[in-house]
């Protein structure tokens, strides 16, 4: 498994005088088991990069590889995007987007159930993640009964539950206090190591930025890597 590999990735919106070059020859590599941060000001290209990796939009040029599969190569792309998103990528969005008529456990267990896991096994796996995220006491509650931070932790559990090889997280800790934000990062690191997941966390959350061993900065569609002594948990 390769994790995530992005080579010379470009994205142009529109054409002619009004064209915007949102990504310019971006190179990134995230190893299996690694959690990296992606930081940049508003308009720098973070969403465009995540949406390209998540096969939500088509890049203009370059190459992307997820796990052992090339998903985009200079205009060519994999056919079955839905299967790609379902089997390869765990998304954690800024907003939780929980299903209002399913309780917390079933919101998390739904994906493994749809993938064919037995209901009790799927619920057990959901509960394990809810426990790691300290929301197990809300397991039978409905989403509308939860606080914003609780909903976000449930959404994080849902993004991890299928153990995808790639996790894309967009500001996952924004509504959380310091302790819980750090617990989320610890969980992402644990999951990454246990299941050899490659994780990208888009964030401007000062609480978690010091925990990344490696950070990519993005500015005007160009990425720069920062590796630091003293970065990381240990
Ligand atoms: P955030 O940085 O919080 O994700 P953005 O303002 O960058 O929010 O983008 C919100 C949504 O609007 C995204 O889906 C983005 O692709 C889209 N968007 C951003 N800029 C433009 C634009 N100039 N024209 C059309 N859509 C845009
Ligand atoms: P960020 O997520 O870092 O805020 P985006 O990826 O949303 O940045 O945007 C990068 C650049 O691309 C910005 O100049 C934005 O206005 C532009 N952009 C984003 N989405 C669109 C779109 N759908 N159409 C046109 N321009 C867009």
UniProtKB/TrEMBL annotation:
Transcription regulation found in the keyword field: no
GO molecular function: ATP binding; ATP hydrolysis activity; transmembrane transporter activity
Source species, domain of life: Bacteria
Signal peptide: none
Residue ranges annotated for the ABC transporter domain, each copy included: 4-234
The entry's keywords: ATP-binding, Nucleotide-binding, Transport
The UniProt record lists the keyword Cytoplasm: no
Record GO cellular component, one term: plasma membrane
Coiled coil stretches, renumbered: none
CDD domains, alphabetized: ABC_MJ0796_LolCDE_FtsE (cd03255)
Protein name in UniProt: ABC transporter ATP-binding protein
Source organism per UniProt: Thermomonas fusca
